[in-house]
Design goal:
The protein has about 120 residues and is mostly helical. The protein has one domain: AhpD-like, CATH 1.20.1290. The chain contains five helices and no strands. The longest helix has about 35 residues. The mean pLDDT is about 95.
């Protein structure tokens, strides 16, 4: 059975809503950390999201892959940028990471349907 990254991110978002309600201070702290880490700086927002995706792939986190691919699509990532990032992930993580790099490609293809994205950068 193939997984749907749209379903995964929807389901996790719903569960995160429960956590937001039941442990609000923890979620607020995590959100503040994310906001600070992703704030404009020397690295572009796109670069920071590519790094986040690389860590999600290396950690074998389906929801991380889904959320960061969605963010990358919003930021206009090109397929070439995505593929180079996944090549570095595979180099650093070997075979298991290659399997999750393939999942990131599936997420990109599923979540970018109907959205215009550049072919290369």
């Amino acid at each position: 059975m193939s997984k749907s990254f749209d379903t995964i991110t929807h389901d996790v978002s719903k569960a995160l809503g429960t956590l937001r309600h039941e442990i609000p201070e923890t979620i607020q702290g995590f959100n503040a950390l994310a906001k600070a880490a992703l704030a404009p700086g020397v690295l572009s927002a796109l670069d920071k999201e590519l790094i986040a995706l690389a860590i999600g792939v290396s950690s074998r986190c389906d929801a991380c892959i889904g959320f960061h691919v969605k963010a990358l699509i919003r930021l206009g990532v090109s397929r070439a940028q995505l593929m180079e990032t996944l090549a570095v992930c595979t180099y650093m993580g070997g075979g298991p990471t290659l399997m999750y790099a393939a999942e990131a490609v599936r997420a990109y293809e599923e979540l970018s349907v109907g959205k215009a994205t550049p072919a290369s950068a």
